[in-house]
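2024-03-11 09:14:02 INFO worker-7 job=invfold-0412 stage=load source=structure_tokens
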């Protein structure tokens, strides 16, 4: 049986799936980190691959940008393909001045501005959190690999081009580390259906200072994040 947006058969996707937003990044990871790679999805150009990493079966699935797109793939991976561990690997903008470009955030919770959660929880505010076991293992692994990380909360927004830049001040004061577009929906759907989820985010720019990393710098620091993510497979 196939899902609506993925053409894989049940059994072709591993229990552990890494979730980059960019489908071309999924292709890059498959080609550079995995062996015995099979492409199981090309629908809508949202590539999905399954391969092996140090003897462990692992899949990489692009999700697209934003909670609407990501939510579709996360829902189908869990409910149709019975994936158990879903790990977002992406970038974010920092809203804390001390976070350096290229450092990795281990997101333990995600606030957000999505109407989806407001409707689901009837106006109340749900605290979307990562799975503790995955978070703890990622923290340990990063220390073993001497990769600098920050653990804390992030904010998932539906708006990439922000018309109210000062709105981040209140979140900064409350210790939120960075802004992405998918972590909140990942944590929410995973909790609802009994799967484990974690988000690893490389700081690609700093919203407060206005600094940003080059494409080459993003690729180099992305590799550090991938070492952590693949080590969890």
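2024-03-11 09:14:09 INFO worker-7 stage=emit residues=233
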């Amino acid at each position: 049986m196939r899902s609506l947006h993925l053409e894989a058969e049940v059994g072709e996707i591993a229990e552990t799936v890494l979730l980059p937003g960019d489908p071309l990044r999924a292709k890059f990871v498959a080609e550079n980190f995995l062996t015995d790679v099979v492409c199981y999805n090309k629908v809508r150009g949202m590539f999905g691959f399954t391969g092996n990493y140090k003897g462990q079966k692992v899949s990489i699935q692009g999700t697209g940008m934003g909670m609407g797109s990501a939510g579709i793939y996360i829902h189908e991976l869990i409910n149709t393909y019975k994936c158990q561990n879903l790990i977002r690997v992406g970038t974010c903008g920092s809203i804390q001045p001390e976070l350096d470009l290229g450092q990795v955030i281990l997101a333990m919770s995600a606030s957000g501005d999505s109407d989806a959660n407001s409707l689901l929880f009837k106006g109340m505010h749900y605290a979307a959190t990562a799975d503790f076991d995955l978070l703890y293992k990622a923290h340990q692994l990063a220390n073993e690999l001497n990769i600098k990380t920050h653990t804390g909360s992030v904010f998932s927004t539906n708006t990439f081009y922000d018309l109210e830049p000062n709105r981040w001040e209140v979140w900064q004061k409350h210790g939120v580390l960075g802004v992405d577009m998918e972590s909140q929906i990942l944590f929410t759907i995973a909790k609802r259906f009994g799967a484990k989820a974690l988000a690893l985010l490389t700081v690609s720019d700093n919203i407060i200072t206005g600094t940003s990393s080059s494409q080459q710098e993003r690729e180099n620091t992305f590799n550090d994040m991938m070492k952590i993510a693949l080590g969890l497979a």
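2024-03-11 09:14:09 INFO worker-7 stage=report msg="The mean pLDDT is 93."
2024-03-11 09:14:10 INFO worker-7 job finished
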